[in-house]
Amino acid sequence: MLLAGAAAVVLAIAGVIGFLVLRGEDEDPAAGGPVDLREPLTFQEVAATAPAPCAAGMLPDPEEATCYRLGASAMTVRRLERLRILGPDAAHGQSGWRLALTLTRADAAGFGRMSGQAAARPDGSPGRRIAMVAGGRVLSAPAIQGGPITGGDLEISGSRLFTRPYLEDLARRLSGRRAP
How far apart are CA 41 and CA 15, in angstroms? Predict the structure, then answer.
């Protein structure tokens, strides 16, 4: 699991969602300007975790191994500045495929505040996690490592599901087109 910004964070993500952006599939997501999401992506504090099967009021991770009860603190992202797929990078200790998201400036500031609150919680506590939710499904529940994540650059990796084809499909679901 990995989020990168001013500080590094690792995200474990396993799952896909059915959300698309308003732009067409033939447009290049790296070709400037934000990408408007048709269905918003919500970052929400994790209040509690439990092993599956999930009790009422808890949401499973996509591998259905861990259940999450979400807290009140949340922020919703409706636009990304950039979306791309990154391959393994042994020189920087990255052995797997990653999906990189760049938040808008306003969302980056909000995520910085939220990740700062999570980072202030005790190591190993559920409150140190921030769930990524879309379409009522938990995509990932990253544990914040270090301090707040500022700057808006996030990398999602760490799941055994994160193959290049899987990430290409996820990028298409996020953006409605192929990610570079």
Answer: 13
Q: 111 by DSSP, 3-state: which?
A: helix
Residue ranges of E strands in 25-148: 35-51, 59-60, 66-86, 98-103, 130-134, 137-140
The angle formed by the CA atoms of residues 48, 137 and 135, to the nearest 5 degrees, is: 140
Who's near 165: CB < 8 A, 6+ residues apart?
none
Please report where in the chains the tokens 């990168």 appear, as a residue.
4
Contact 179, 36 (CB under 8 A): no
Give the global pTM: 0.73
Token pair recorded at residue 24: 């067409």
| Cβ atoms of residues 25 and 144 within 8 Å | no
Q: Are 118 and 146 in contact (CB under 8 A)?
A: no
pLDDT tens per residue across span 24-57: 333 344 444 578 877 778 999 999 999 999 999 9
CA distance 44 to 158: 19
Cα torsion 92, 138, 42, 87 to 10°: value is 20
